Amino acid sequence: MTTSPTLANTREELSALLAPARRDGKRIGFVPTMGALHEGHASLMREAAQHADMVVVSIFVNPMQFAPTEDLDRYPRTLSEDLELCGANGVAVVFAPAVEVMYAGGFSHDSVRDGVTVHPGRLATILDGESRPGHFDGVLTVVAKLFGLVQPDVAVFGQKDYQQLALIRAMVRDLCLPVEIVGAETMREADGLAMSSRNRYLDPAQRTAAAVLNRALHAARERASYGVPSARWAAMNVLKSEPLIELDYLALTSVDLGEAPTSGEGRILVAARLGSTRLIDNMPIHFSTPPERSS
After folding, report:
1. Element (DSSP H or E) covering residue 285
2. Which of the residues 41, 119, 135, 286 is marked catalytic?
3. What percent of the chain has pLDDT over 70?
4. Residue 12 belongs to domain spanning
5. Is 51 a catalytic residue?
6. Tens-place pLDDT, residues 109-158
7. Residue 86: which of 21, 35, 124, 131 has the closest Cα?
8. Cβ distance 119 to 151 under 8 Å?
9. How far apart are CA 44 and CA 57, in angstroms?
10. Cβ pair 156, 27 in contact under 8 A
11. What CATH number did the domain enclosing 223 receive?
12. Other C-beta atoms within 10 Å of 13: how many?
């Protein structure tokens, strides 16, 4: 049965809604989002419900994680539909603050530099961090703010944003934040494309072409038993077959995003543009030492 979640727009409203649960010792699960919700987000809500007595979802398009040249104004806002999806997945409270609630006096990139923010460290300088300087400063700062407001026992993030998940885990560890972080599996469309709010930007030709990202990752996994170079070659060969793809990066790494091991568990990550839309994906990969050739 679908039950509409209670909407909170201010810190005071959120605190009043969560106070009874805290008083009763209920476990609070939290799913931070930027809205434009889809089945991938719904899976995070259902995962959170497995770890908590009540689920809170935030909907906030965070300006700090967008560079001035990026698509902040273009990012879809679909609050009515988002509330329906939250209700259909058992969410108790939706926190949808205005920018002024999260950033006192409003937000500008100049003003935020004068305030206290979270510095994400070296891990934020590679991959997406190299392509989007300052992005993860914005992500970690707003997540820390939301953790302070919601005070969840557990928070669920998707593995599609794998580098983000790794940085949030590092922040929780290094800043001693009392919240358990759960990484949920990536939800995919029928053709393998990772579900994303940005998929709606794609025109029909771009949407068809986007499935090549998933095919490239699978091609690498199939060749990983022949070593890292072979896995990389296989993925690149697939990506080069699609002319609409403008590759940002293809990275084969360790599980913690370091250098890829010669054997053992790792990760393969890809980012690419189709027109003005930037998509990312990743999946686990198992590397092996290439078999020796007989003489």
Report:
1. strand 277-287
2. 41
3. 97
4. 6-184
5. no
6. 777 777 899 999 999 999 999 999 999 999 999 999 999 999 999 999 99
7. 35
8. no
9. 10
10. no
11. 3.30.1300.10
12. 16
